[in-house]
């Protein structure tokens, strides 16, 4: 079956403006595993756009060769609302202009909605219950509110993705080494993904909090039991979701896009969405490249004052607890008092920088990941705004 490309209309924000999402569908609808991929949910994070640009022809080739086993849904740009948010020539990204907040927070808590439509206990027969929950989920998604452009856009993305077995949300950091976030309930799949894509840092959480897009369909499967649905405790962690941080905002090139697309193809083959076939033409990453860490072992080092940033260690450096990772320069202070040293609380790898070099108090400067859980990092509030 060949690719189907659809254009889904979004609510017009103003007269004379039309918005839409493009969706490419591969494989038979309802085939498993279903994999959903999207890029640039935060609107100003473009490496994922390049990765999916290079993935589509590979999927077309696999399709022509009859290698698509599951259902693969690709949304090559997830957020036309945010991509249109320009201020002074710059796409501001991340936060909606309509006051609804961070585009990747507060996605619907699906468990109470699904519970309402289940109307009674599950059976304890896992396969039958998974089918029944998915049916109730689709009904619940159809009933999500859609009275504003943002609500209708969120509902559209949720209806495309929430019943998938794998949800891959392609993001990036300011300046960074590649890393990914996933739930520890599916640590094995997270490592398979990281290894397929050559990603060295895997950040696993029990409960990140914040309602990130990829966590809504993942957490549904255990939140049903918490919501009081009888027999739901037998449900496995059906959905795997990952937020994949493809380096930094300006790491956009054909070469990196080809590399990431090849990595995604390797993952699709490893989870059985693609029948194995011809090699994708790029050498796979070496085994043992990826390391799993707890998300609460990431030190997010923030700026204590406003100032100009002088990083003291390169991206990827191994640093020690107490080590100076950056100096903030306060141009308003007198000489001798105008340099403030900033240290890390973690021993480990420095893997992100803020891309801006003039910061205000509270701005995140770097992230350092190691083995020691950090007391100030609390389960349920592990993501930044
Ligand atoms: Zn993002």
From TrEMBL:
Q: Which organism is it from?
A: Marivibrio halodurans
Q: Which GO terms describe its molecular function?
A: hydrolase activity, acting on ester bonds; metal ion binding
Sorted keywords for this record are: Hydrolase, Metal-binding, Zinc
Q: Where is the Succinylglutamate desuccinylase/Aspartoacylase catalytic domain?
A: 33-95
What are the names of the required cofactors?
A: Zn(2+)
Query: A Pfam family name for this chain?
Result: AstE_AspA_cat
Q: Could you identify this protein by its name?
A: Succinylglutamate desuccinylase/aspartoacylase family protein
Q: Which InterPro entries does this UniProt record tie to the protein?
A: AstE_AspA_cat (IPR055438), N-alpha-Ac-DABA_deacetylase (IPR053138)
């Amino acid at each position: 079956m060949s690719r189907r490309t659809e254009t889904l209309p979004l609510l017009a924000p103003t007269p004379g403006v039309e918005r839409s999402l493009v969706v490419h569908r591969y494989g038979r609808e309802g085939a498993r595993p279903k994999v959903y991929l999207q890029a640039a949910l935060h609107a100003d994070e473009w490496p994922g756009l390049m990765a999916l640009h290079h993935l589509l022809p590979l999927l077309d080739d696999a399709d022509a060769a009859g290698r698509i086993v599951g259902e693969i849904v690709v949304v090559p740009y997830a957020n036309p609302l945010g991509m249109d948010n320009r201020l002074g020539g710059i796409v501001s990204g991340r936060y909606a202009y309509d006051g609804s907040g961070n585009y990747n927070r507060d996605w619907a808590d699906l468990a109470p909605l699904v519970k309402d439509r289940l109307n009674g206990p599950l059976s304890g027969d896992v396969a039958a219950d998974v089918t029944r929950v998915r049916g109730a989920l689709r009904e619940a998604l159809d009933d999500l509110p859609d009275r504003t452009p943002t609500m209708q856009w969120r509902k559209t993305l949720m209806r495309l993705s929430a019943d998938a077995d794998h949800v891959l949300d392609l993001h990036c950091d300011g300046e960074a080494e590649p890393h990914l976030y996933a739930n520890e309930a599916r640590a094995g799949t997270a490592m398979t993904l990281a290894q397929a894509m050559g990603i060295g840092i895997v950040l696993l959480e029990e409960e990140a909090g914040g309602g990130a897009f990829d966590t809504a369909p993942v957490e549904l499967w255990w939140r049903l039991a918490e919501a009081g649905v009888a027999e739901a405790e037998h449900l496995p962690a059906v959905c795997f979701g990952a937020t994949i941080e493809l380096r930094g905002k300006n790491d956009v090139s054909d070469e990196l896009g080809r590399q990431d697309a090849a990595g995604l193809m390797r993952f699709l083959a490893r989870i059985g969405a693609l029948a194995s076939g011809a090699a994708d033409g790029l050498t796979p990453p070496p085994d043992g490249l990826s390391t799993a860490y707890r998300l609460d072992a990431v030190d997010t080092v923030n700026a204590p004052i406003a100032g100009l940033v002088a990083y003291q260690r390169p991206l990827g450096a191994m640093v020690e607890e107490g080590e100076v990772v950056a100096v903030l320069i306060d141009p308003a202070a007198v000489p001798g008092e105008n340099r403030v040293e900033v240290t890390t609380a973690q021993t480990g790898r420095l893997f992100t920088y803020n891309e801006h070099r003039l910061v205000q108090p509270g701005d995140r400067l770097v992230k350092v990941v190691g083995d020691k859980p950090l007391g100030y990092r609390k389960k349920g509030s592990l993501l930044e705004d």
